[in-house]
Amino acid sequence: MAGSTLCLALLIITITISPSPVSSQLSVSFYANTCPSVFDTVRTAMRSAINREARMGASIIRLFFHDCFVNGCDGGILLDNTGSFVGEQTSPANNNSARGYEVIDNIKMQVDRACGRSVVSCADILAIAARDSVVELGGPSYSVPVGRRDARTANGASTDLPGPDESLDSIIDKFGRKGFSPREMVALSGAHTVGQARCVLFRGRIYNDANIDPAFAATRRTTCPTTGGDDNLAPLDPQSPNRFGNNYFQALINRRGLLRSDQVLFNGGSTDSVVTLYSNNADAFSTDFASAMVKMGYLGPLTGSQGEVRVNCGRVN
């Protein structure tokens, strides 16, 4: 994004996030004295992780979204199951699909080496890593206020996350419950400009749906048979799966959305106009996406004396 456009995006973010008791406790400068190198450390580590595997950037963005939408941005998704505790990692929305835990663990170790243990929370590391993933993949930058603390439990039974076959009305409702407008929902869905999905999640669409480009469906069927191959992957954005941009919205207009929950955004419904806008105006998408990501970071964080700062992101202290 050009410098002038980025300045506009950050200005819009500043004026659209309304003050709240939580927002007053999160600050970009929260670690200025205790861990001034945290942002540089996370950025360097994420760049290395994405260089090793381009898909990892999308995985970390998704991990942040799935963390925030269930009980807030509290690092709950990072907690491993134990004999007496079943967390979010094996919930239907995350089992065999959420990934990148080891990347966050590695970053946590690097941050702790630089600043000491029990200083920077796992929830904050995930939030920063998600932003750095967006930027590393070519997307917009935005400020990440920090000061979150880590949860001591997680909610593995939550149904807050939209599924791959969700209807438009249901998706709008689920985002609305978190305070997002339909336009913000479409902007956040644009994260599917990067990443991949498993065959089992889109098989029904490519074999049964009418609102799909026949050539696109035929291509996807070559690696996603009617039976077997459940874990075979396909890009959510067929044009640029590892580059952040607005091609995802152009694909929806061409009926090449991989998941049903993608294509419902452009299927004769109330969000068609937003998809059309973003498909024609990459700057509008980037600005709205950055603003919505900042807003998402304010979903129910633990602050002050709430929760804890985990030493190991996978278990409570």
Q: Care to describe what's here?
A:
It contains 14 helices and two strands. The chain is mainly α.
Regions with pLDDT < 50 over 5+ consecutive residues?
A: 1-20
Radius of gyration: 19 Å
H/E series = HHHHHHHHEHHEHHHH
| Overall average pLDDT | 91
Helical proportion, percent range? 40-55%
Q: Strand portion, in percent? A: under 5%
For the secondary structure, the number of strands is 2
Overall shape: globular
Summarize the structure.
By secondary structure, this protein is mostly helical.
Keywords:
single chain, 317 residues, mainly alpha, two-stranded antiparallel ribbon, 14 helices, globular, disordered N terminus
Topology:
Elements: H1 3-16, H2 21-25, H3 38-52, H4 55-68, H5 101-115, H6 122-136, H7 168-177, H8 182-189, E1 196-198, H9 199-208, H10 214-221, E2 233-235, H11 247-253, H12 260-263, H13 272-280, H14 282-296
Antiparallel strand pairs: 1-2
Helix pairs in contact: 1-14, 3-5, 3-6, 4-6, 5-6, 8-14, 9-10, 11-13, 13-14
